[in-house]
Amino acid sequence: MAEYELYCFAQSGNAYRVALMLDLIGADWAPLWVDFFAAGQTRTPDYRSEVNEMGEVPVLRHGDRKLSQSSVCLTYLARRSGKFLPQGEEQELEAWRWIVFDNQKVNGMLGPYRFLRTLAKPPGDPAVLAFLEGRAKGALAVVDKRLADRPWLLGDQPTIADVSMCGYLYYPAEEFGFDIPASYPNIGAWLARLKALPGWKHPYDLMPGHPLKA
Length: 214
Fold this sequence. Notes:
Shape: globular
Structural class: alpha+beta
Strand content: 5-15%
Strand order of the largest sheet: 2-1-3-4
Distance between the termini: 32 Å
Oligomer: single chain
Radius of gyration: 17 Å
């Protein structure tokens, strides 16, 4: 049995953050596929009582401990492994500043936009899609500016802030209707640096459930 188990599915950028972190730190882990789309598994009473009362992925299982919310899981793994860990109070606070901005403004807008545009049946209301797309693009511009003069969000070394921020950014351009790396060149270069790290894998190669069955 693997040391870590991760409840996840391939289309979830939130789960991808944790799956990627597990691979980047060289952890012994196994995915536990959650049938979000066909079975609505996260919304079932069993899932909410036995796995996560919030009805979400990811959930990281380590021994008797179960952790949810990707930022909590990333922090836990960084502390246990000593890798991608912000150094000192100032960097820790700065990491959390970017993780919160990511969760609320970057992937917090980009994730629902992609879901409603590409995965929801029927697709979302065009006015809602336009609002989410505009907010996501505005937040991406902030990140692109941040990366103009540094290789990583906090400076010279990658941290959990970078692992968090990339959650949805490797999914195919056709799922968004625009090419994020091409539209934001500093983000594109940063994504290439992340991709070059030992252990990196694409979300569709790292987690089960792709392609979706009709």
